[in-house]
Design brief:
Layout (H helix, E strand, L loop, with lengths): L1 H7 L2 H6 L1 E6 L4 H19 L5 E4 L11 E3 L2 E2 L2 H14 L16 H15 L4 E5 L17 E4 L7 H4 L3 H8 L8 E5 L3 H13 L4 E4 L14 H18 L8 H10 L7 E5 L2 E7 L7 H11 L5 E8 L9 H14 L6 E4 L8 H12 L5 E4 L3 H14 L2 E8 L1 H10 L6
Parallel strand pairs: 1-5, 1-6, 2-5, 6-7, 7-8, 10-14, 11-12, 11-14, 12-13
Antiparallel strand pairs: 2-3, 3-4, 9-10
Helix pairs in contact: 3-9, 3-10, 4-5, 7-8, 12-13
């Protein structure tokens, strides 16, 4: 990364940027969005920081979501401009760009474009989400971040990060840097010990952040997880601002919660008389959260037709879709909310009938719901619209992969602000 940035002529400019680097297994994207929103709320009141940059992954609908300037996804025109400038500077053939053989791979390219954009747009603070892991991530070229933060750690991405929580944590803790403040949410003891050991090696003072008590009175949170992520974001921002004798006040907190735009995470939409509850939950330890939220959000209404939509194509090198679905079914059973329909579909273009039949067997063996397989997300939406014609209150929980939630948002004509 350093060599490519040198080719772009940005080595000195990058070193002048203020970076906040965030890793974790769960909630790191949301935490980054909250950090960005809090800084923008503070900026409205005080003028600092004048401009923020936010880099996250993956995207839901469009690649431009990954790069935000002061809260807004970069325009398609600017994205194309900066992408071509990176390609030209590195003498890259566009067809070779994602290959990783003759230049940066896709994620490296996206990160390079984001840094190029942040320099060109003259952002003051750049909030960076780690791709996977941390220690060997392309984003970890940042040698002098102002602050590093670790969100909830889980056993995830095991082919890359290892088969135990200690190994996963070691990878995440790789973002700690001497001279940078470090913060973490509460972790299981095994993970916390590794974080403390790695912080000690880097001569870093690691602070554990709990959930702020006063957030119980702040509207806009749909789960305890969101309050936890916001609390970490708040602590990161106070650490960034305090050396300048600046601080966040209650107005900043309320503004930040109200203005944050992070679709696909505990999101509710209403379209054509149908209430859509959307939450990306692509690891087994996370899947019970959207089910609990779905029940809380809709249990006050009567005569509801409940529908669950799930898609997650199994990839042995990434995540086990069958395990995830089994956990989802168990969560549904635990809170005694049985959907009338369960729709299973593909989240990519692969033809996977055997896998979907396996998914159907998991549901049929545990739920009394009408379980159906549909060949595409569009077909699922068509079926739901047909059901709505015969029912009054239709509430749909969409959960599973990023691809599924992104496709549903796209087909519902949702625009990322």
């Amino acid at each position: 990364m350093a060599g490519w940035l040198e080719q772009l002529g940005h080595e000195d400019a990058i070193n002048r940027l203020t970076f906040i680097h965030v890793a974790g297994s769960k909630g790191k994207g949301s935490t980054c969005a909250y950090i960005d929103s809090l800084l923008r709320a503070h900026s409205k009141r005080t003028g600092y920081p004048a401009k923020t940059g936010l880099y996250t992954s993956p995207h839901l609908i469009d690649e431009t979501e990954r790069i935000r300037i002061s809260g807004h996804p970069i325009s398609h025109d600017l994205f194309a401009k900066y992408a071509w400038e990176v390609i030209d500077a590195l003498s890259m053939n566009p067809e070779q760009m994602p290959s990783g053989d003759n230049g940066p791979g896709f994620l490296q390219s996206m990160f390079l474009i984001s840094l190029h954009a942040f320099v060109a747009e003259k952002v003051d603070v750049a909030v960076i989400e780690v791709h996977t892991g941390g220690r060997f991530c392309a984003t970890n070229f940042i040698q002098h971040p102002a602050i590093t933060a670790i969100t909830t750690l889980l056993l995830d991405h095991t082919p890359e990060l290892g088969n135990d929580i200690e190994s996963v944590t070691w990878h995440k803790a790789g973002i700690f840097k001497k001279g940078a403040s470090a913060f973490s949410t509460n972790q299981v003891p095994e993970a916390m010990k590794v974080l403390e050991d790695e912080a000690r090696k880097e001569q870093v003072n690691l602070e554990v952040v709990g959930t702020l008590d006063n957030l119980r009175n702040v509207s806009g949170f749909n789960s305890a997880v969101q309050r936890q992520n916001f609390s970490l974001a708040w602590r990161v921002c106070t650490a960034l601002l305090s050396p300048q004798r600046q601080h966040l006040n209650d107005e900043d907190i309320h503004t930040a919660v109200a203005q944050v735009d992070w679709p696909g995470r505990f999101q509710v939409l209403s379209r054509k008389g149908i209430s859509w509850y959307l939450d990306v939950a692509h690891s087994a330890p996370c899947i019970d959260e959207p089910v609990k939220w779905y029940k809380r959000s809709s249990q006050t209404q009567d005569n509801i037709t409940r529908i669950v939509v799930f898609a997650h194509i199994a990839n042995p090198r990434r995540r086990d879709g069958a395990k995830l679905l089994t956990q989802l079914v168990e969560a549904i059973q635990c809170i005694s909310i049985v959907p009338d329909y369960v729709f299973l579909t593909k989240d990519k273009t692969e033809d996977v009938p055997a896998l979907l039949e396996k998914y159907k067997a998991i549901c049929d063996g545990a739920l009394t719901s009408q379980v159906e397989i549909e060949p595409s997300v569009q077909k699922v939406l068509d079926r739901i619209e047909a059901i709505e014609q015969q029912s009054q209150n239709v509430h749909v929980l969409v959960t599973g992969s990023v691809f599924l939630v992104g496709d549903v948002l796209r087909l519902l004509d949702y625009e990322i602000n």
